[in-house]
Amino acid sequence: MGTHLQNQIGIVYGVAFSQDGGRIVTGGDDNLAKIWDLKTGKLIRTLKGHTENVNSVAFSSDGNKIITGSWDSTAKIWDANSGALIKTLSGHTNWVYSVAISQDGNKIVTASLDKTAKVWDALSGKEVRTLNGHTDWIRAISISNDGNKVVTGSDDNTIKIWDANTGLVINTLSGHTDWITSVAISSDGNKVVTGSNDKTAKIWDVKTGLELKSLSGHTEGVWDVNISQDGTKIVTASDDKTAKLWDAKTGLEIKSFSGHNDGVWSVVISQDGTKIVTASADKTVKIWNVSNVNKIQTDVSGSTFSIINQK
Fold first, then answer.
1. Angle at the Cα of 54 (from 175 to 165), degrees rounded to 5?
2. pLDDT digits over 11-46, tens only?
3. What is the pTM of this model?
4. Which member of 8, 31, 128, 198 has the lowest number of beta carbons within 10 Å of its beta carbon?
5. pLDDT digit string, tens, across residues 175-217
6. Could you give all domains of the chain from N- to C-terminal order, each with its CATH number?
7. Closest to 267 measured CA to CA, from 51, 6, 16
8. CA angle (301 as vertex; 300, 303 as ends), nearest 5
9. In angstroms, what CA-CA distances link 131 with 3, 55, 102, 151?
């Protein structure tokens, strides 16, 4: 049986775990981000300040800050404990579609439909540099744990790996046949996982830029990807109403998660790899308990927390 997370109105676009696994943050089409207690399902804080949809959310590694990106062309830094707004990052001229923060908390990166990505100083909120090179919208961004590499995915069907300190392109990854929806970089910085509207996810070698594996199994576009902390598991979310768990080494599907009634737009896996969270256009977020996660034959229970539309 599920625990109801009350008060999130409408579609949920983005979701993120705190590193300790005790909280999740969601962003939706009500212009709000909300922080929830994972065990009780209770609302802890509401982050109010954006004037349009909140499309992307991220926790800092220490759990003290939350970053949000919005269709209002800004990103915001929030105090995760008090809910207070710390800084507004202004500089993009179109929707901020994706946000991420470095492990040390010093750099924030944003991706926008203005065809640029930006690197920001997390303490001052000042723009450090703009990453120019994509020829179409940038929907996805990730930053390596050491803060030295940025990965972006674009509607130009390419992924770019950037030097975060110089703004130069290190490599361009080509192989998807439709626009890139999502990117993630492994904790050791050696692999990149990408999702595309071409219905596949791909694993790439960061140093060589070579495609290592193509993950095929979804029947509609792959909207989000995420990698476990130990790098052994990949999760994907799709417009086919499912999420999938994959073995990162073999590229084989481990389990499919069915239960949403509309496209699954966001997916994350907890730090310890025992829980997967999915957010859907059906206006729910589901938290799946993954038992005995190290075995390929994984038993997944559909214990879900449902964010319901309540006006």
1. 55
2. 889 999 998 889 999 999 999 999 998 888 788 999
3. 0.91
4. 128
5. 999 999 999 999 999 999 999 999 999 999 999 999 999 999 9
6. 3-307 (2.130.10.10)
7. 16
8. 140
9. 42, 20, 16, 11
